[in-house]
Amino acid sequence: MAKTLFEKIWDNHVIHQEAGKPSIIYIDLHLVHEVTSPQAFEGLRLTNRKVRRPDLTYATMDHNVPTKDRFNITDPISKQQIDTLSQNCKDFGVTLFDLDNIDQGVVHVMGPEIGLTHPGKTIVCGDSHTSTHGAFGALAFGIGTSEVEHVMATQCLQQSKAKTLEVRINGNLKPGVTAKDLILGVIAKYGTDFATGYVIEYTGEAIRGLTMEERMTVCNMSIEGGARAGLIAPDEITFEYLRGRQYVPQGAAFDEAVDRWKKLTTDDGAQYDWVVEFDAESLIPQVTWGTSPGMGTDVTALVPDPQSFTTENERKAAEKAIEYMGLTPGTPMTELAVDYVFIGSCTNGRIEDLRAAAAIAQGYKVSPTLTAIVVPGSGRVKLQAEREGLDQIFTEAGFEWRDAGCSMCLAMNPDVLQPGQRCASTSNRNFEGRQGRDGRTHLVSPAMAAAAAIEGHFVDVRDWKFKVKQQA
Ligand SMILES: CC(C)[C@H](C(=O)O)[C@@H](O)C(=O)O
Ligand code: SF4
Fold first, then answer.
1. ipTM score assigned to the predicted complex
2. Residue 235 backbone dihedrals phi, psi, to 5 degrees
């Protein structure tokens, strides 16, 4: 019978099934960070159990890590979480990419980067943005702390089978429009819960044309559309990305792996439970105006009038969001001045993101009205950026160049907004207080964030080329 990609991976991993009950599936890779693992390790300790497969379990610290002076953690809770992870990894024999390791970084950046993420694997982590790894055609999703303990103890997980949703992207992205705009556009169109209960598979020409890093940006935000996970079928772009990475089979074993991975596509004639379509051709750069990732619009648009929404609930939500965000309906998005610019996170903290931001920033100066920071997603991203001289471009322009971590994506470390500050952020969530109490977050692409840093307010990056040409 013809199967979707999801069904193939699922069927390969179900190890026990009773009628009417959730399945038991096998987990190929368990990623661990300092926030959601302490109680799980403690649970093992209390019941005298071990990590069953330490060889399939990898840990790093990211959320609490300061991006300046990282060994001097002054916040007691952060320090405790980080020290506890180190001790737990020692006690349970789990490989840890520690603060002094080049591979330390945001778990969803460093995992794929060192080649832990492979097509067809089941991957879990106590973190919702585990969906990022679906870019490789892996079934990857976030789990809660009690499930973290369960996976540590058994390498299995109880799961109900999700429904399948094809998000078909028609046409190609236009210059200046990025993978970030694409996923923001999809969520703005369909809402933050359209994919609840589904695993998304992204298909279509525009997806095929994306690099692995761009695919990760798209899959990263699947969870913001409510999905259990997001998948992209592996292809030559995937295999080329993986070739030679540390945790990828080498030589003949790699070719054999590629032969297996090539089968991980949705068969002709396979049926998804639901299909939605999205037009890439007409998409333009996106900016969110509200307090959920679905409250987004074109950079050329105006802050919406809450009355323009169809349902009472939407009108109320928009009103509340606009008030929190300190906005006035009808204001052009390009007139919104920002106080802070954050370039980083597991959505947009990879080398291509930094290149895109640097390409905008090169030769310009950050507006004196704001603070702008660039935070590489991992130690290796930082190293690579420095090899390419991107750090120079950023610092000469007036951006601060930081060490790897989650940073200002969420307020769990010293990088926080002050109350009322407005931030152009390349991260994935704009909830109330996400970047600091009463902070105001607008989600954008790295190029859009860099351009806002220079102009002091949002600008349409498609005009940027124009500006560069005029100055040249
Ligand atoms: C702290 C962690 C549990 C959380 C998540 O699950 O996503 C964080 O990474 C986030 O982005 O909000
Ligand atoms: S970078 Fe942000 S979204 Fe990603 S894991 Fe860290 S806190 Fe979560």
1. 0.99
2. -150, -165
Fold of the 5-275 domain: Aconitase; domain 3 (3.30.499)
Please name which of 209, 165, 161 lies closest in space to residue 186, comparing C-alpha atoms. 165
Is there a contact between 248 and 217 (Cβ–Cβ < 8 Å)?
A: no
Where are the domains positioned within the chain? 5-275, 287-471
Q: How far lies 323's CA from each of 305, 320, 425, in Å?
A: 12, 5, 19
Which ligand is located closest to the Cα atom of residue 148?
Answer: 1
Report pLDDT digits (tens) over 231-274. 999 999 999 999 999 999 999 999 999 999 999 999 999 999 99
Residue 143 CA to ligand 2 centre (angstroms): 14
Q: Is the CB of 129 under 6 A from ligand 2?
A: yes
For residue 128, how far is its CA from the centre of ligand 2 (angstroms)? 9
What pTM was estimated for this model as a whole?
Answer: 0.97
| Burial of 161 (C-beta count, 10 Å sphere; 0-12/13-18/19+) | middle
In the CATH scheme, what is the code of domain 287-471? Answer: 3.30.499.10
For residue 63, the CA-to-ligand 2 centroid distance in Å is 7
Which listed ligand is nearest to 141 at the C-alpha? 1
Q: Which of 138, 122, 140, 121 is nearest to 130 (CA)?
A: 140
